Amino acid sequence: MDHRVSRRTEILTNHLLRRAPPPSSVLQPHRCLSYSPPELSNEFAFDLREMRRLMDGHNLEDRDWLFSVIVQSALFNRRERGGRIFVCPDYNQSMEQQREATMRRIEYLVERGVFRGWLTGEGPEEELRKLALHEVIGMYDHSLAVKLVVHYFLWGGAVKFLGTKRHHDKWLSATENYDMKGCFALSELGHGSNVRGIETITTYDSNTGEFVVNTPCESGQKYWIGGADHATHTIVFSQLYINGSNQGVHAFIAQIRDSDGNICPNIRIADCGHKIGVNGVDNGRIWFDNVRIPRENLLNSVGDVSPTGEYLSAIKNVDQRFAAFLAPLTSGRVIIVGIAVYISKISLAIAVRYALTRRAFSITPNGPEVLLLDYPSHQRRLLPLLAKVYAMSFSANDLKMMYVKRTPKSNKAIHIISSAYKATFTWNNMRTLRECREACGGQGVKSENRVGLFMGEFDAQSTFEGDNNVLMQQVK
Q1: Cα dihedral sign for 335, 279, 96, 94?
Q2: 236 and 374, same domain (yes or no)
Q3: Is 449:442 a contact under the CB 8 Å cutoff?
Q4: CA-based torsion, 310, 313, 316, 321: positive or negative
Q5: pTM of this prediction?
Q6: Which GO terms describe its biological process (predicted)?
Q7: Burial 46-63 (b: 16+ CB within 10 A, else e)
């Protein structure tokens, strides 16, 4: 094996350095043509565990524990083939069945304590553990991962970072235990990346001590809200008006369903329908018709309103206040960066392994066919992407470390880097998926081989949590 690896390494080096190939062509009959991929039990010239430690970066034992939890349940479509265990969602199910499966899987993981400490835990170690476990879930199913991002990172993150003690005491434990279900109502039909322009309006009624939330027009309806079909509560972002003066975008907690799942008065919810992917997530639309919520439901770490209707904020600059209210989106971008890298890894592992088993064409009339990976053209299409995903893996780990060790001084740098990485990594992921799908030929089209399905599942990453072209404008 060492000889074959060295030969391929030499050939690739010649390609990169534009050196003339050796006299003996790679496509001549060679004993390598009888090569078959080694099983994982075979010995390698390098330490696989060390390579995994470098690539995963942190919390290897936690990752292995969660995988063991997943493969113990039939909910995850466990299959055993050739002495190995495989789990994969059934994408042939209807949208309704996929959504039901997502909810049942979340309940199973909640019962086994997977999400313990995700909101009530403190410190970098707790945050790294949460990110590691979420990456394992993301490798299994994008819908399940997105559903958890909405509930724990967006809804829960907003309560934790934009709220104060009164919100933490009331909501964090209930959110972590999944006793209530939250969603995050930011995007509207008329406004996505331009959050400053959202049209939902909230006014304060000093006579009753309540806020009144209203959708003034059709373009102001909340759109693409993940969890809208199951959530009991939402974080609703809207323009806050005090005595006729617009104080900018603020975040409020609004109940949208009662404990029995009935939609609350003056709220209308509709489904967004079938999508090109991520159909296990219940994306929906929400309208508010002068919905009254308690004054205490304003997430007030950035700005508050007194009982008499006076607006209070330590941050006088409107732009800085607006940036503070968007802080929960940073965690979303960090998560997307990590998942994009892992999906690229999976697709490349599939395509490279396939290229080491599939043969096409022979050099001589009666000679053996050549392995795909022995063709220079096939090496050029896959190996540079493989090298790039190594570099991106290290970069994603660095970003996670920056995020969990963040300080007020580092927040701007994290915002810029996470914006740049989210755009470039998701674009690269789609390019990688396309190349791997084509490199697998017809096998890349089959659902069970995942690469083709990944293209529909992860294309949305280019636009959610910020359109990539807009995010790149954050980089100076």
Answers
A1: negative
A2: no
A3: no
A4: negative
A5: 0.89
A6: fatty acid beta-oxidation using acyl-CoA oxidase; lipid homeostasis
A7: eeeeeeeeebbbbbeebb
